[in-house]
Each structure stands twice: as structure tokens, then as C-alpha cells.
């Protein structure tokens, strides 16, 4: 996990000053790097700042099968209809069809670090990452095809979203916004903002509105399926890492240093919530029973039982950083982070120091 943007690892200690590097010549905008999504990427802080990633396996080729892949650095996880897919460093992709009890490593045609994954249903999915890689699966994550790779761009992609089997978006560093209308076979680059800030996370509300959380307090909204975007008032000038639609016009916004905000009008105004932590907040979901779970570095788990108005802090005893969370059914969740993948049962979410359980990759 080198280099790491935190002194002593991802355990939530003080962040190092951001690395600086020349931006690609074709890009415009300020030289702000911020603690972008790559504060989550222990192997890739340099890439997010615009510099080449640290030395490791050569990009390209196929990811190496590893018996302990389920314990490697994993950076995102997606769930659909009982299927789970997690992605991370060295091109690792793992899938599970038993609620995260066991995991199988997929055959993946890249060794690039993968940072985002999206499942449209239990079969169709896409993953993105360094080298501007886009991968596609049609069988629930068992096999993958490479749809796009552009290492010469020196812009990692951070997240991906599809409205249906044809139309989708991939977002990333320096304002990267790619659109496809043919399931990812071809991608068109668009410019959606005045500055080339890093675009970290894209989410869809039940109303159909799309939200993008980005660096430097940038928050974008689209009400026409991504054809156009407008910047919303931001409650924070630091980096924002995720939005969590709660239903109706309610929305959570997650940021650096434990910054947590709630909007009840679709992002037009914000109230500050007490997160009870200064750790960076990374992801969040709404469970079927109505509870809301927010994750963060340093083993932070925030749980709300009142529709996101207040949160209780349940910090994991290991203090290992949690990057992503997905529902696993029956009130349980699957966590992804520097520990790999772990499952927390519904009852463990109520335990302040619950010890997650994990499965081995087959």
C-alpha cells in the first residue's frame, strides 16, 4: 500500500500535504489538488494529483489471481439483486452470490487499480479506474471485457453510473466526464463545469435527479438525465466524496474531516450534522429497514435510525479504513477497504466495537 496519503497508513492519522505535479497540457483550471478521492487510494495518491502511480505491476495484461485477494486493498463495492462485486488495487475484482460469505476472484484484463464499480442488475456491470480504464461484465462479475484504456491521458476515473444498458457516465480527475449511448462500446468526452475539479462520486435520487460530489466544495445536479448540469450551493469548501439520496428531496453530503450535511430540498440548502468524528467520510447507503450507514477512514461507521437526522458513531476496533459499503440483505452490510471485504450482520451495526467477519477468495 505505497505510497500512502496518511502518516502511518490509512488508519486515519494526519494527512500528508497533497502532492503536486503538472496537469496534462490540454486541461484547463486551477492547480488545486485537494485530498481527492485518492485519499482513499493508498496505492495511488500520486495519480490523483496528476502524477504517475507508484511502481507496481505493469499496467495492462491480466490481474494476477491471489488466494488472499479478498484481503487486499478494495476501493468500491456494488450490489444488485443479491449479487455483490468489489474492485480494488492491481485490477482485483471479486464477486459473491451468497451475501458476502465467500468471494471468487474474477479474470480481469488489466492490472490497473480499479476505483469504482456499478451494477445495473445482477448481470450487467461496469468498473473504472486508473489509466482511464472502463471494464464491462455481462455475467455478474465473473468475466470482464476491456472497453476503454487511455494511460496517456494520466487521468484516473473514479466512479461510473448507468441509467440503462446503453446510457452511462464515467467521471474522474481534472473534470473528466465521459458519456456513452451504446453500453460503453464508445465514449464521448464532455465538459460539465468551468473548472477541472476532480469529480469523485455520482448518485441518482429516486426522483431521477443526478448528483456529483467533487473537490473544492463542488456539488453538481442534473435534472435531465445528465444532459446538463448546474452547480448547487455548497456548505463546505473542502473536498466532497459522496452524496446519499434518502428519498424524496432528502440528501446527505459527505466530506473531509467528518463533515456531514443534510438537505431536505434537493441540495438547495444544507444543515450541518454532528458526525462525532474528524475522520474523512467515504460512502453511505440506506438499508431496507430504513437505517442509514455511513463509512469513513479510521474504521468509522455512522448509523442513523431516524432517517439521517442524527447519527451514532460505531468505530471498529481495528481502526482500519472503510472506503465503501453495500447492502447484503437481511439488514447486514458488506464493507470494503484496506482490509479487503468484510460482512457485518444487522446486530453488529448496533455494537460500538463490532468485529467484522470476512470470507476467503476462492
Characterize the structure shown.
With 362 residues, the protein is mostly beta strands. It has one domain (37-350): YVTN repeat-like/Quinoprotein amine dehydrogenase (Methylamine Dehydrogenase, Chain H). It is 1% helix and 36% strand. It is built from 1 helix and 27 strands. The protein has one helix at 45-48; strands spanning 74-80, 83-88, 93-96, 104-105, 114-119, 125-129, 133-137, 145-148, 157-162, 168-172, 177-180, 188-189, 199-204, 210-214, 219-222, 230-231, 240-247, 250-255, 260-263, 271-273, 281-286, 292-296, 301-304, 312-313, 322-329, 332-337, 340-344. The strands form 7 sheets. Strands 1-2-3-4 form a 4-stranded antiparallel sheet, with no helix packed on it. A hairpin with a 7-residue loop joins β3 (93-96) and β4. It is globular and about 45 Å long.
What is the number of E strands? 27
List the quaternary state of the chains: single chain
Question: Overall pLDDT, averaged?
Answer: 84
Under CATH, the topology is which?
A: Methylamine Dehydrogenase, Chain H
Low-confidence stretches: 1-58, 353-362
Order of helices and strands: HEEEEEEEEEEEEEEEEEEEEEEEEEEE
Please estimate the helix content. Answer: under 10%
Assign the CATH architecture: 7 Propeller
Task: Give the CATH level 1 class.
Answer: Mainly Beta
Strand order of the largest sheet: 1-2-3-4
**What's the gyration radius in Å?**
18 Å
Indicate the structural class: mainly beta
Shape: globular
Main β-sheet, in a few words?
4 strands, antiparallel
Could you tell me how far the N terminus lies from the C terminus, measured between alpha carbons in angstroms?
Answer: 23 Å
Number of helices: 1
The CATH superfamily bears the name YVTN repeat-like/Quinoprotein amine dehydrogenase
Number of domains: 1
Strand content: 35-45%
Amino acid at each position: 500500500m505505497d505510497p500512502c496519503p496518511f502518516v502511518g497508513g490509512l488508519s486515519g492519522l494526519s494527512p500528508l500535504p497533497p502532492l503536486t505535479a503538472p496537469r496534462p497540457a490540454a486541461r484547463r483550471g486551477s492547480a488545486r489538488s485537494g485530498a481527492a478521492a485518492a485519499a482513499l487510494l493508498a496505492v495511488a495518491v500520486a495519480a490523483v494529483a496528476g502524477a504517475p502511480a507508484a511502481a507496481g505491476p505493469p499496467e495492462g495484461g491480466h490481474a494476477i489471481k491471489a488466494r488472499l485477494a479478498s484481503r487486499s486493498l478494495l476501493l468500491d463495492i456494488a450490489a444488485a439483486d443479491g449479487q455483490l462485486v468489489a474492485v480494488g488495487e492491481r485490477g482485483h475484482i471479486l464477486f459473491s452470490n451468497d451475501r458476502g460469505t465467500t468471494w471468487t476472484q474474477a479474470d480481469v484484463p488489466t492490472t490497473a487499480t480499479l476505483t469504482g464499480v456499478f451494477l445495473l442488475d445482477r448481470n450487467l456491470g461496469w468498473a473504472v479506474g486508473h489509466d482511464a480504464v472502463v471494464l464491462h461484465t455481462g455475467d455478474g462479475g465473473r468475466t470482464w471485457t476491456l472497453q476503454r484504456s487511455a494511460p496517456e491521458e494520466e487521468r484516473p476515473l473514479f466512479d461510473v453510473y448507468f441509467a440503462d444498458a446503453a446510457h452511462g457516465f464515467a467521471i474522474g480527475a481534472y473534470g473528466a466526464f465521459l458519456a456513452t449511448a451504446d453500453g460503453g462500446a464508445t465514449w464521448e468526452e464532455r465538459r460539465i463545469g468551468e473548472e477541472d475539479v476532480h469529480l469523485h462520486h455520482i448518485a441518482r435520487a429516486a426522483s431521477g435527479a443526478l448528483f456529483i460530489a467533487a473537490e473544492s466544495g463542488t456539488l453538481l445536479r442534473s435534472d435531465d438525465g445528465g444532459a446538463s448540469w448546474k452547480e448547487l450551493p455548497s456548505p463546505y469548501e473542502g473536498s466532497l466524496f459522496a452524496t446519499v439520496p434518502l428519498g424524496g428531496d432528502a440528501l446527505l453530503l459527505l466530506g473531509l474531516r467528518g463533515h456531514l450535511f443534510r438537505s431536505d430540498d434537493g441540495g438547495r440548502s444544507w444543515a450541518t450534522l454532528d458526525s462525532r468524528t474528524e475522520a474523512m467520510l467515504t460512502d453511505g447507503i440506506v438499508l431496507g429497514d430504513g437505517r442509514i450507514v455511513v463509512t469513513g477512514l479510521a474504521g468509522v461507521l455512522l448509523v442513523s435510525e431516524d432517517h439521517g437526522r442524527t447519527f451514532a458513531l460505531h468505530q471498529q476496533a481495528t481502526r482500519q479504513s472503510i472506503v465503501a459499503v453495500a447492502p447484503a440483505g437481511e439488514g447486514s452490510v458488506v464493507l470494503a477497504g484496506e482490509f479487503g471485504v468484510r460482512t457485518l450482520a444487522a446486530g453488529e451495526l448496533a455494537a460500538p466495537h463490532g468485529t467484522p467477519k470476512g470470507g476467503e477468495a476462492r
